[in-house]
Amino acid sequence: MRRISRITVAGAATASLALALSACGGTSTSASSSDSKGDKGLAIAYDVGGKGDQSFNDAAFAGLEQAKKEFQYETQDVEPTEGETDADKEQRLVSLAKQGYNPVIGVGYAYAAAVKGAAEKFPDTTFGIVDDSTVESKNVADLVFSEEEASYLAGVAAAKNTKTNTVGFVGGVDIPLIHKFQAGFEQGVKDTNPKVKVLSQYLTQTAEEGGFASPDKGKSAAEGQIEKKADVVYAAAGLSGQGVIEAAAANKVWAIGVDSDQYSQAALAKYKDSILTSAMKDVAKAVYTLAKSVEDGKPETGIVRGDLKTGQVSLSNSNPKFADDAEVQEAIKTAKEKIISGEIKVKSS
């Protein structure tokens, strides 16, 4: 039984809103016009790359699926459209809130302006935004992570596994969020072995140029680094990271995945033996936990951070070659303990 009141939506109104929503982006879970109870729950609006990126967006969808199963309510997830504006994003969130969904989450920092605008229009709806801490509102939860900490551990793993003393970092878009991944990775590499060289490259300056959604760009960047002797390549590039993994597999070097456990992703199964580990952030848990807080009548708001201490950033151990390497695992364990204790302060830029 939901403890938060829902907006009851009449059939005709729902139909017109569903039409408006489809104009702003495709949906994979249709709203039911016959839902007279208004018992609607979590809705998410995807970032660039959409569902199927085997990374960031898919992790958010996993959180939605968990909430749907546990709370037995209607959910909705909506795809982005090419070239959309902040106004388009805001209309998407507004449409979801009008239909009675609560909470409504924008997946990605690009939703900052849209979440702020929608939250002002619907003060009784809880909104969430992943990877942005700038939206200050009584009904908004900023779901952020210490990506630099998991990236530091990825740097330790890279430094311990390189045989050429050269590793690579591929960032999707040249923005502060991705700088955190780069900074942590480079620090982890250098603290582990100062002799290791880190080659770093960004695919684009803006998300609109496809930095998070172009596997071909990721593949080309990784191939360039591999030509320069990089034998471990870490990608923080969303869907573009699939190209990095493909290049690593083709050249028989290591790739390090990001956000989700990419070794276990079905779409990447043919490359998994080349995926050393993944620097994960538990977007699924953050999404689910916000939904649960609304369900319990105590909505999360303000900055909600996941880090090594909370267990919401980590390295995956799915690859047996990585999990069974005692020396590497001990180095990672030691680094993790020092980060949590504060002995190691990881840079975020």
Please tell me about this protein's structure:
The chain has a six-stranded parallel sheet with strand order 2-1-3-4-5-11, sandwiched between helices. A six-stranded mixed sheet has the order 7-6-8-9-10-12, with helices on both faces. Helix 2 links the parallel strand 1 and strand 2. The chain is built from eleven helices and twelve strands. It is of the alpha/beta class. The N terminus is likely disordered.
Give me a quick take on this structure.
The protein has 349 residues and is of the alpha/beta class. Helix content is 40%, strand content 19%.
Number of helices: 11
The percent of residues in helical segments reads 40-55%
| Large-scale geometry | globular
Largest sheet: 6 strands, parallel
Tally the beta strands: 12
Secondary structure: elements and pairs:
Blueprint: H1 11-24, E1 40-45, H2 56-71, E2 74-78, H3 86-98, E3 104-107, H4 112-121, E4 127-130, E5 140-145, H5 147-161, E6 166-173, H6 176-192, E7 197-204, H7 215-227, E8 232-236, H8 241-250, E9 254-259, E10 275-281, H9 283-295, E11 302-306, E12 313-315, H10 320-323, H11 326-341
Parallel strand pairs: 1-2, 1-3, 3-4, 4-5, 5-11, 6-7, 6-8, 8-9, 9-10
Antiparallel strand pairs: 10-12
Helix pairs in contact: 1-3, 2-9, 3-4, 5-6, 5-11, 7-8
Q: Which structural traits does this protein have?
A:
disordered N terminus, 6-stranded parallel β-sheet, alpha/beta, 349 residues, 11 helices, globular, single chain
